[in-house]
Amino acid sequence: MSQHTAISRAAILGLALLCAMSATTAHAEQISVEAAARTAGLSVKTDIVMVNGAAIYYRDIGPPGEAVLLLHGFPETGDAFAQIVGSLGKRYRLIVPDLRGSGLSQRAPSGYDKKTLATDVKELIDRLKIDRVHVIGHDIGARIAYAFAVQYPERLLSLTVAEAFLEGLAGTAEFKRQAPNNPRTQHFARFANVDQSTEEYRGKEEELVLSFMNSRSKSRRFVADEVTRYTASLKRGGLRAAFMNYEAFDRDAAFAAEADTSKLADIPALAIVCQNPFGNNLQRQLVTAGLKHVKGVILNDCTHWIYEENPDETLAALTDFLAGAGNRP
């Protein structure tokens, strides 16, 4: 192990210890993926590894065998999946990273385009000696999942994307035209101004998380105790990293528009959206990109946070899809 790797691991493990100590004095805290998995009787391994120039924290949950890679979005961490890992981890080996710049992973100064973030998780599964994997991404994680798919189609068992617009695919020009006037997407341009947004929200991280999540929630109202891990992630230098994800959208669009999707034609894919007036645009994007086996699911009782607003219906959709996709040779 290099001196740089050792220092990075020590620093991040120190942060993890500090968070654990802080939790003992707090009156309540958001449940972690690790705690949810252990409560369900699942094995949990955690570590930090240097991949693609960044120190990435991950959880390795459940039995050996068929693997599922879970990729979170903004403003979340891998803890977004806490409500589904107990059930999903009884059947699959779950790999749940905190993406570059979030949670207990390193706040790298660059590398927030989705091509690079996809390479992060590809190198992670390399380190874990996982050959092929079901990739599931939500929000920013969906964009990373798609970037993984076009770069490494031979590593896919299946692709699931949820509650996102994939920049560079069908409808991008119209989406960009309407985004400034759509309450759901007005933040794209604002967050892309990284310096200004970092300054605006520094010291207001909890307010940002709550206002952002509650403005996109139908079936529940989040309170501070339910998002402590997301808030802590942003307070630990995660604001700038989070906004750099948005700053990279134009580069992401250029990459996706030029990517060769011919090897994705026979990949089983699932596109999940919450009920909305426009139907399943995510499914249409994948079909237009050339994927021939795309299942679409529209969930009720949610606006965006499918794992936290409607975990039961989300879990049912995932388990049904994965069962069929796993039979692919």
Describe what you observe in this structure.
- The chain has a single domain (3-325), classed as Alpha/Beta hydrolase fold, catalytic domain (Rossmann fold).
- It is 45% helix and 16% strand.
- Strands 1-2-4-3-5-6-7-8 form an 8-stranded mixed sheet, sandwiched between helices.
- It is built from 14 helices and 8 strands.
Q: H/E element string? A: HHEEEHEHEHEHHHHHHEHEHH
CATH homolog superfamily: Alpha/Beta hydrolase fold, catalytic domain
Spatial extent as radius of gyration: 18 Å
| Approximate helicity band | 40-55%
Mean pLDDT: 93
Order of neighbouring strands in the sheet with most strands: 1-2-4-3-5-6-7-8
Residue stretches low in confidence (pLDDT < 50, at least 5 long) are 1-7, 17-26
Identify the overall geometry.
Answer: globular
- How much strand content do the residues show? 15-25%
- What is the architecture at the second tier of CATH? 3-Layer(aba) Sandwich
Q: What's the N-to-C terminus distance?
A: 37 Å
- In the CATH hierarchy, the third-tier topology is known as Rossmann fold
The CATH C-level name is: Alpha Beta
Biggest beta sheet summary: 8 strands, mixed
Q: Give the number of DSSP strands.
A: 8
Q: What is the overall number of helices? A: 14
Structural class: alpha/beta
